[in-house]
Amino acid sequence: MPLKYALMHEWLTPKATGGSELVVREILNQVDAELYALIDFESSNPESYLYKRQIGTTFLQSFPNARSGVQKYLPFLPLAVEQLDLREYDIILSSSHAVAKGVLTTPEQLHICYCHSPMRYAWDLTFDYLHSSKLGNGVMGWATRYLLHRLRQWDVISANRVDYFIANSQHTARRIWRCYRRDSTVIYPPINTEILPFSAEKEDFYLTVSRLVSYKQVSLIVQAFNQIQKPLVIIGTGPEMTKIQQIAKSNIQLLGWQPDHVVQKYMNSAKGFVYAACEDFGMALVEAQACGTPVIAYGAGGALETVRDVRSAKANTATGIFFHQQTATALIEAIESFEACQGKFDPESARLQAAQFDTKVFAQRYQEFLHNHSQKKHSVSKNSDFF
Known about the structure:
With 387 residues, the protein is an alpha/beta fold. It is built from 13 helices and 13 strands. It has helices spanning 19-30, 77-81, 126-132, 138-159, 170-180, 218-228, 241-247, 260-269, 283-290, 303-306, 328-340, 347-355, 359-384; strands at 5-12, 33-40, 55-56, 91-96, 110-115, 164-167, 184-186, 206-209, 232-235, 252-256, 272-275, 295-298, 320-323.
């Protein structure tokens, strides 16, 4: 009998189209799995590849304004994911950056989790979350702290429901160990480098593409470019849009959300791609390099695994430059160094660097991992029949 697969992801909405959703799409290209999520507003979206697909959901689907941000129902997320009955499946695959890994399984099932990140607001971003939230002060502040405390406890407990972890970077693998004391195998996310346009000819502007939320540090980039008065294009939207509009000077263009072909056009022609966040992997950095565009990035997290710094790379292999403090001053110094090193960035080298993270590489490694561990599970189950 063929094995039955279920794939669990956090949420599926038109606004949730980041790296984790691209991983879900590629897993579905590789595995015939039935899809589940806390909420789903993609199967009713005619522009989505999931249009008219049957997707299992939870009680959160009917909650008010869930479509615009189910995160507002944070206390209910663990309960919701535990209500999904997936006992009919042989293998559970989860794509998790919050609670997807917490689905309940039986001893006979195999659970493989592709972990994009341990729950950020419960771990690394706890104090950022408290400081930026209206719920961080007073009585509600203490209630929020207690909620995050309980979330951390649940997060560790639910990690024990996973048989094998896959991490999206060495950085995430270290965070999985720190939070859960679990080993993981690194399989980098899929970047379809073949469809990204490549050009060695660049125009005189810098680019950043990002969700406009506090930890992405886009306001820091704006502060730096306000001072140096060089042209900057920002693509993306989010809660910090109004703040950035208010502080950005005339040398900065805010384009808001843009379709893929527009994003690719700007990536292809930008002089440099600027990124100030500490990312678990950072798909945008790889996409920029695939377009032949060098990167100016905060030197932490996944960027250290995807960008070759001009100050340490071998000749003609540099694909960018790092700055090591999240300050406007450090970024300005990096931009000045970047300008002085223009002849050392080879667009072809950037393209070759990005090719290491291509969709085909992901597909091969994920299929091999799934095959090896499902075979191992099958052998153990078969042998247990004799006892």
